């Protein structure tokens, strides 16, 4: 039967072995892990929260005041462009229209009378013209006295003056008729406002009026009333993404965009950047970018929250893990620690590019294939020997 070592002797042996291992490692330098600098596909992306909005959305207010006589649309109704949503009873405008019609008829009658007066004046002038010419010929032959000639001339001149007055009255009457017609047309337009119509094809997403309600126009109500209807075009949605300043310079029209709606998990959508505002909001320091999403089935709802990832740049490039780069907080060069063939460390300045949070693009300083240290970067000195651990 073998004898067991006392417990304290076993513990002592374990400690001795650990010390010997540490001494051996110390002799070879500190142990480090390395990775190889290699080329891979890098993406410069911007992931931002966003909101889906209707392609078009119109808030409809009344242009005229009156009582709602008929409401023909409700929330959820699909409407066509120009479709009537409600009718407003406007008896005052109708009475005004009828009065203006009567006034216009009177003005047209007066114009016709003045035109007839011009005809009479012209006929009278022609007759007096002939009489005047005849008398002038008789005066030359001494057949009539000069007094008769003067009286004839006076009547002729009076006839010319009456024609001028009659023609002026025709112009005045014509102007009055034109003004009357314009006034009547304006009233006709106001009567058309009594019918509230959809400005485009879409869906009624809000209604705040019932039959019998007193409807006021927005001007008389100070612009504070809520819209009578809201019509939204939702067969296509636009997702508005607030892109921060650091990414705004990279975003361009046509960039791939991936959209995920938390309300519809596991069904990401993909499209491209359709528009960019080209300016930063001075309050948020973000630029508005829009992505269009087809929504023919109406499953997506305006106002839904989503997360959008925009791929602004994608290329095959040399990279190292993020933990392999030591950044100079004073704004100097970034450093990677390269393990040489003799297991010595070299501090290599590098110029970095894209940083996706996992890998960092190396624009210059490395050529590829170098073994770079990951971790413990602040403890390693240039030229120091290390022991490379197997990954």
Automatic annotation (TrEMBL):
GO terms for molecular function: efflux transmembrane transporter activity. InterPro entries: Beta-barrel_RND_2 (IPR058792), BSH_CzcB-like (IPR058647), MdtA-like_C (IPR058627), RND_pump_MFP (IPR006143). Gene3D superfamilies: 2.40.30.170, 2.40.420.20, 2.40.50.100, Helix hairpin bin (1.10.287.470). One of its GO terms (cellular component) is efflux pump complex. The keyword Coiled coil applies. PANTHER family: MULTIDRUG RESISTANCE PROTEIN MDTA, RAGD PROTEIN. Belongs to the membrane fusion protein (MFP) (TC 8.A.1) family. This is Uncharacterized protein. The lineage of its organism: unclassified sequences, metagenomes, ecological metagenomes.
